[in-house]
Design brief:
The complex is a heterodimer of chains A (315) and B (296). Chain A is mainly α. Chain A is built from 15 helices and 2 strands. In chain A, strands 1-2 form a two-stranded antiparallel sheet. The longest helix of chain A has 27 residues. Chain B is mainly α and 296 residues long. Chain B has a two-stranded antiparallel sheet. The chains are: A mainly alpha (315), B mainly alpha (296).
Chain lengths: 315, 296
């Protein structure tokens, strides 16, 4: 029982994913597809971040670097090199993986609070590069990125084909991350999170595992950012700003760190909040701050964490 | 000093070094506050930048709403920011001491968002001017460069405050209690010292330092809700480079990196924004615990 729950997909989770898929297939016929696509991109971003924090126990405060970095590279690949959407997304994702490897191998040399500060500082460096490098368009970012033809065949001009492309990529990414968490690799991660000295004494090369999970997390954060640049036809400084790193932390905290579905719920709430309260200006920032404070003081398990405790099932 | 160094006119070099020294003064005061707080509370105060901004705003408000000038603001603003910090510590931070230290970071990040968002709502982001006090306006010609009096004052004032804080922590009885409580709070409490009070005052003091830096900064940079947000990230890098093990280390690293940044602005202007982060990467490679840090 325990083994199958640890490494296979439980029936409950399979059912939830099936319902989610059905819901997402129907969704564009009821809500504005671009909004739904934004939520899906951020859900993948939050899930990738949660792999690192919730399962690896590593708080990165600089995930905007991979999300935004990939968004810039993918936008550049589609706009300047004229690549098809899937290749542009691949370029962005690969760039995020390389960036994650470089920053991750430096950051894992420090633990805890220092790790968070190091990742934040490197992300700020990426922000300055995005502001200054010749190909990034400075304050304007990269605008009017063409949507192109998927595999050179299917036009993604219209929202609906684009929507299903985004759905396939993001849900595929989320399922892959689910698989990672429930693999033997994921079990080792949990062991390191719970008791690092013991994992070392059991013979695991802890730093290698930490670096691997960091690179994986950065890669999928990059995948989310690359897809987002194709949806909005835009890569901008917002994507690499520290407030973006803060937002993804908020999504994970609000939904429930270390849960499977928490980050997805958190992403949906945070993105909807921005969307519907956009006219309130800086009050959105204040509200996000209040959710952070309340979340840390009263509600550390997050929404799905609480639900999971009530139902006595891991969600 | 009429010669040129590597093709750089001495006025330019000295000017940028002065600018670097001023930035370094802010890095030093802010990283000192972070180190003091971290030592006792084990919390990285993400709200430090927001409280620095608040110090500048309190000075601006005192002047514009109450007609209270710079010199009183230099005393009142840190006290008010410190008192605000004590409220935060009592009502929120004190609930987190038994939890993972990361929660302190998340909580103070939320507080920073709230404070910055509120000031942005009421004062916009265009920035408000704050006059240099009359006694410090103008400048002095040193022969090789023109030194604005206010900038000289910033360097002197921050150096005096840093030295004073170092002296208090390392050389006085109160500082000895503080250092002892950093090492072993339970034992210090058993000797009859009120550790929670010490923790509260330490947070108030660290935060007041940020408020003081904010008042110093008000006449140089325009008073702006976002003024602390980007600064605090650079200060984090400074803290990673220096390590938070020693008070003097935090101060000296702050000044040194300010100067390095100034030099970068002379010799390689494109890289000046990222030079501190590059140094951080190098330090992580060769001495991961930081220049003055203790190995974990």
């Amino acid at each position: 029982m325990m083994v199958s729950e640890a490494t296979g997909m439980s029936k409950l989770h399979m059912a939830i994913f099936a319902v989610l898929l059905a819901f997402l297939v129907a969704l564009p016929f009821f809500v504005y597809p671009v909004f739904a696509m934004k939520v899906m991109c951020f859900a993948l971003f939050a899930a990738a971040f949660n792999l690192l924090l919730g399962f690896g126990g590593l708080l990165s405060f600089g995930h905007a670097a991979y999300f935004g970095g990939a968004s810039y590279v993918a936008a550049h690949a589609a706009k300047v090199w004229g690549l098809t959407p899937e290749l542009a997304v691949l370029c962005g994702t690969a760039a995020a993986a390389v960036l994650g490897l470089v920053i991750g191998s430096l950051a894992i040399r420090r633990q805890g609070i220092y790790f968070a500060m190091v990742t934040l500082a490197f992300a700020q460096m990426i922000y300055f590069l995005a502001l200054q490098l010749p190909f990034t368009g400075g304050e304007d970012g990269l605008q009017s990125v063409p949507r192109g033809r998927l595999f050179g065949i299917f036009s993604l001009q219209d929202s609906l084909p684009l929507y299903f492309f985004v759905l396939a990529v993001t849900l595929g990414g989320i399922l892959f991350l689910y698989r990672v968490v429930h693999s033997p690799f994921g079990q080792v991660l949990k062991a390191i999170r719970e008791n690092e000295p013991r994992a070392i004494s059991l013979g695991y090369d802890v730093n290698r595992y930490k670096l691997m999970v960091f690179v994986l997390s950065a890669t999928f954060a990059g995948l989310a950012g690359a897809v987002k640049s194709q949806v909005f036809q835009l890569a901008s400084l917002t994507d690499v700003h520290w407030s973006m790193s803060g937002e993804v932390v908020l999504m994970a905290l609000l939904g429930g760190m270390g849960t499977i579905f928490g980050p997805l719920v958190g992403a949906a709430i945070v993105v909807s909040m921005q969307n519907y309260f956009a006219t309130f200006g800086a009050w959105v920032t204040v509200m996000q701050g209040v959710i952070f404070v309340l979340g840390v003081l009263l509600f550390r398990e997050g929404l799905i964490g609480v639900l999971s405790r009530w139902l006595k099932r891991p969600l | 000093m009429m010669f040129e160094l590597l093709g750089i006119p001495p006025q330019v070099l000295m000017g940028q070094l002065l600018l670097g020294l001023i930035n370094g003064s802010f890095y030093a005061v802010l990283s000192l506050g972070l180190a003091v707080i971290f030592g006792l509370l084990n919390i990285i105060n993400f709200a430090h930048g927001a409280l620095y901004m608040m110090g500048a705003f309190v000075a601006w408000m005192l002047l514009n709403y109450f007609g209270i000038g710079y010199w009183w603001a230099l005393i009142l603003a840190p006290l008010m920011v410190g008192a605000f910090g004590i409220v935060l510590e009592r009502t929120m931070l004190s609930r987190l001491y038994k939890l993972d230290h990361l929660y302190g970071l998340l909580l103070t990040f939320g507080l920073a968002l709230i404070i910055q968002g509120l000031f942005r709502n009421y004062y916009g982001i265009s920035g408000l001017p704050y006059q240099i006090p009359a006694a410090l306006s103008g400048g002095t010609n040193l022969g090789f460069m023109f030194l604005p009096n206010y900038r000289a004052w910033v360097v002197v004032a921050s150096a005096v405050v840093c030295f004073g804080a170092w002296f208090m922590i390392e050389k006085t009885r109160l500082g000895a209690y503080l250092r002892a409580a950093t090492e072993n709070p339970t034992l210090v409490g058993a000797f009859g010292i009120n550790v929670p009070l010490l923790v509260m005052l330490t947070y108030g003091f660290g935060v007041a330092l940020a408020g003081f830096a904010g008042v110093l900064a008000a006449p140089i940079y325009s008073v702006n809700p976002n003024m602390g947000a980007d600064l605090i990230i650079v200060v984090f890098a400074v803290v990673v480079i220096g390590g938070m093990g020693s008070i003097m280390g935090a101060i000296l690293t702050g000044y040194m990196l300010g100067l390095v940044e100034g030099l970068a602005r002379v010799f390689y202007p494109e890289g000046s924004a990222v030079v501190i982060f590059v140094i951080m990467a190098i330090v992580l490679l060769i001495r991961p615990e930081g220049l003055c840090g203790r190995a974990a």
